[in-house]
Design goal:
Blueprint (H helix, E strand, L loop, with lengths): L26 E2 L11 H11 L11 H11 L6 E4 L1 H13 L6 E4 L5 H8 L4 E4 L18 E5 L11 H10 L5 E4 L20 E6 L12 E4 L2 H12 L8 H11 L2 H24 L3 E2 L6 E5 L5 H10 L2 E2 L1 E2 L8 E5 L3 H19 L2
């Protein structure tokens, strides 16, 4: 840390992303990437856009913004296109939260919420999940704070209902309610239709998971026109060309091939249910995930130990060394072949541990 860093940032704890290994080949089930490549339309359109990289990209998402709006059944003015959903979340904290308008989110959820709050100087309240890791909507009713809810939640994969979202939005009319739907396409129900009813509701999604574009950084926010105008005020004051030509083209290619996306999501959901049943058969406790990952613990082996033993065998999963979830692993749903190798290795580890 240099002597020049602002004092208020010296205590900042950055978000810790999943491992991105270099060199040794791993079965990579730790960062919730898709096991499927992007649609051929993505590759074709991104390659064509790369021929014009000497020119700046279109402003405000260009044609992608309109396609997202059409796909979701809203108007173009209700959509802001961002460099991944993380940029949308950061700008939401920057635009709507402050020392006098604090934030609130769960104790077990996406780790970037606390980072965005800290870097933007926003005080926040951490609300514990229930013992079973579900959200209790009553904890958010009328709290008069800006609320951030991942639905499905990460790393648990659990969801809350649209009815509960409505209750929360209605009871906090002077504050924004953000529903982070990074994993909604794998089994959740989107709150996008509710933005017409609630002027304080913002829905955030990403192309990283269901549309196989983790490497392209494409995300968006959906809300009433005034909120979207506010977000673009921040974009134009930060980086008006926030998505490259190739990223925009990749996004257009992806959303133009919804059949490909839907088919892949169905395959991932089917694999998720199959492997969940196998892990339960081995004695694991597994949450009822609606995302592209499983959240599981084994009573006989600690979470960190199991993570390390799998890594030794060339399989990466995600372990969070945090209270309440240190015995759990978050396991990305990979291909059927990858998941069968995972289960085989877990069974061998359990067997070897039992013999000690």
């Amino acid at each position: 840390m240099s002597e020049f860093l602002r004092p208020e940032l010296r205590a900042l704890e950055p978000y810790v992303p999943g491992e991105q290994p270099v060199g040794k080949k791993f079965i990579k089930l730790n960062t919730n990437e898709s096991p499927f490549p992007p649609s051929p339309k993505v590759v074709e359109m991104a390659a064509e856009a790369a021929k014009r990289l000497q020119l700046y990209p279109e402003l405000d998402g260009g044609g992608l913004r309109g396609l997202i709006a059409e796909r979701l059944g809203v108007e173009k003015e209700n959509v802001a296109v961002t460099n991944g959903s993380d940029e949308a979340l950061n700008f939401i904290f920057k635009a709507f939260c402050s020392p006098s308008s604090p934030a609130a989110f769960a104790d077990i959820t996406y780790g970037f919420y606390s980072v965005f709050a800290a870097i933007n100087g926003v005080p926040f309240t951490v609300i514990p999940l229930r013992q079973d890791f579900s959200i209790d909507p009553k904890d958010y009713i009328g709290i008069e704070k800006n609320i951030f809810i991942a639905n499905p939640n990460a790393p648990t994969g659990l969801t809350i209902s649209q009815e509960d979202i409505c209750r929360i939005a209605e009871s906090n009319p002077k504050n924004i309610v953000v529903i982070d739907e990074a994993y909604v396409d794998f089994g959740g129900v989107s709150a996008v239709p509710l933005v017409r009813k609630y002027q304080n509701l913002i829905v955030v999604q990403t192309f990283s998971k269901s549309r196989s574009l983790a490497g392209a950084r494409v995300g968006f926010a959906v809300a009433c026109k005034d909120i979207i105008d506010d977000i673009y005020r921040i974009i134009y004051s930060t980086n008006p060309y926030n998505l490259s030509r190739t990223n925009l083209a990749a996004g257009i290619g992806a959303i133009s091939d919804e059949d490909y996306t839907v088919a892949n999501c169905k395959k991932i959901a089917a694999t998720r249910e199959r492997i969940s049943a196998k892990l339960r058969g081995l004695g694991f406790k597994v949450t009822d995930s609606s995302a592209n990952f499983l959240f599981a613990s084994y009573p006989g082996i600690g979470g960190k130990t199991l993570y390390e033993k799998l890594k030794e065998r060339g399989i990466l999963v995600r372990h969070f060394d945090k209270p309440r979830i240190s015995e759990y692993l978050r396991i990305t749903v990979g291909s059927d072949e990858e998941m069968d190798i995972l289960v085989k290795n877990i069974a061998e580890i359990i067997d070897s541990e039992a013999k000690i």
